[in-house]
Amino acid sequence: MKQTIRMNMMEKLALLTREEKKSIEKSLLEQFIKSNLWIEPTTIGITISHGFEWETRNIIQFLWEKGKRVVVPKIYTADKSMQFYELRDFAHVIKGHANILEPNPSLTTSVAKEDIDLLIVPGIVFNDAGYRIGFGGGYYDRYLMEYNKTTVSLASVQQLIKDLPIETHDIPVQYIVTEDGVRETLSF
């Protein structure tokens, strides 16, 4: 069921024109900036987007300009874990798991989970309670199990659906930033 929902949404997002995608990304950036979610945190976790995902380099650049410490995840497939590293320059990334850009551990510094104040969680499909379907690896759900600070996701309104299968290991996000603004989820 999750796989079908994931694939259907990925196909839908892939049909967006370049102009439509750029317009949504511009709105997501504007809504994120207008929100107060990024103001108080000093350390913010975010992935470097790839493929059809919403562009995050513009958000990372904005956060750097505001003096925030930006941390990005590296995937460790052997134990299916993630570790975040401080990123100060896009030159300090390498292609990692599934060709996703990740921090180069030899050029970046590891950051403990408890030092991350805000975590921007990727996803493909979301419901009103903040539950999400990601890319299927479960890396973020495992990471979020012991993460007790603020979580937010960036999503187009077309990625929000009513009925989403929820499993016991699924962890919802607290906020979803869409083109229309910031939604506090029902789980918060």
Summarize the structure.
The chain has 188 residues and is of the alpha/beta class. It is built from four helices and twelve strands; from the N terminus they run H-H-E-H-E-E-E-E-E-E-E-E-H-E-E-E.
Give a verbal description of the structure.
The protein has 188 residues and is an alpha/beta fold. The chain is 24% helix and 24% strand. The chain has helices spanning 2-14, 18-34, 57-65, 139-144; strands spanning 43-45, 69-76, 81-86, 93-95, 101-103, 109-111, 118-120, 125-126, 132-133, 150-154, 175-178, 181-184. The strands form three sheets. It has an eight-stranded mixed β-sheet. A two-stranded antiparallel sheet has the order 4-5. A two-stranded antiparallel ribbon has the order 8-9. β2 and β3 form a beta hairpin. The longest helix is centred in the first third of the chain and has 17 residues, at 18-34. It is globular. The two termini are 26 Å apart. 33% of the residues are buried. The mean pLDDT is 94.
Q: What topology emerges from the helices and strands here?
A:
Blueprint: H1 2-14, H2 18-34, E1 43-45, H3 57-65, E2 69-76, E3 81-86, E4 93-95, E5 101-103, E6 109-111, E7 118-120, E8 125-126, E9 132-133, H4 139-144, E10 150-154, E11 175-178, E12 181-184
Parallel strand pairs: 1-2, 1-7, 7-10, 10-11
Antiparallel strand pairs: 2-3, 3-6, 4-5, 8-9, 11-12
